[in-house]
């Protein structure tokens, strides 16, 4: 419904899986939400043949790489498993840019800065570790 309206207006629809919660499993990983919102967003993107950015997987993987002790009170507020800090928002935005770049056929690439460093996530993870 919304995807068709967006296409009719000449815009470029992009469906993005929501970020994961700040919750960790026994293996020290952030679980994916493929069985709910993330999976549903991907199904709609496939149905309408539009770009899908799996921000849930991208951010869960980045969080897992950073480790729970480096995520708490850096990416998410210490007692909040849903809302990110400003640093978490920057990480999310960087991962969305990464997702757009992974789709070189997308016209959205024409609107991204050329100077965006491909190693931004690695630099961010390193900086977050230094904060703690």
UniProtKB/TrEMBL annotation:
Check the record and name the InterPro entries matching this protein.
RhgT-like (IPR037459), SGNH_hydro_sf (IPR036514)
* Top-level taxonomic group: Bacteria
Note the coiled coil stretches, chain numbering.
none
- Cross-referenced PANTHER family: PUTATIVE (AFU_ORTHOLOGUE AFUA_2G17250)-RELATED, RHAMNOGALACTURONAN ACETYLESTERASE
Keywords per UniProt: Hydrolase
The UniProt entry's sequence similarity note says: Belongs to the 'GDSL' lipolytic enzyme family.
- The protein's organism comes out as Geofilum rubicundum JCM 15548
SUPFAM superfamilies referenced in this protein's UniProt entry, alphabetically? SGNH hydrolase (SSF52266)
Q: Name one GO molecular function term.
A: hydrolase activity, acting on ester bonds
Protein known as: Rhamnogalacturonan acetylesterase
């Amino acid at each position: 419904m919304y995807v068709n309206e967006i296409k009719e207006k000449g815009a470029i629809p992009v469906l993005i899986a929501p970020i994961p919660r700040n919750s960790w499993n026994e293996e020290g990983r952030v679980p994916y939400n493929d069985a709910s919102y993330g999976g549903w967003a991907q199904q709609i993107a496939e149905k309408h043949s539009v770009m899908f950015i799996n921000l849930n997987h991208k951010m869960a993987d980045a969080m897992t790489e950073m480790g729970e002790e480096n995520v708490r009170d850096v990416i998410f507020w210490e007692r909040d498993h849903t809302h990110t800090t400003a640093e978490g928002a920057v990480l999310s935005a960087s991962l969305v840019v990464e997702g757009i770049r992974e789709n070189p056929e997308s016209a959205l690439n024409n609107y991204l800065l050329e100077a965006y460093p491909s190693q931004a996530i690695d630099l961010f993870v390193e900086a977050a570790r230094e904060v703690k």
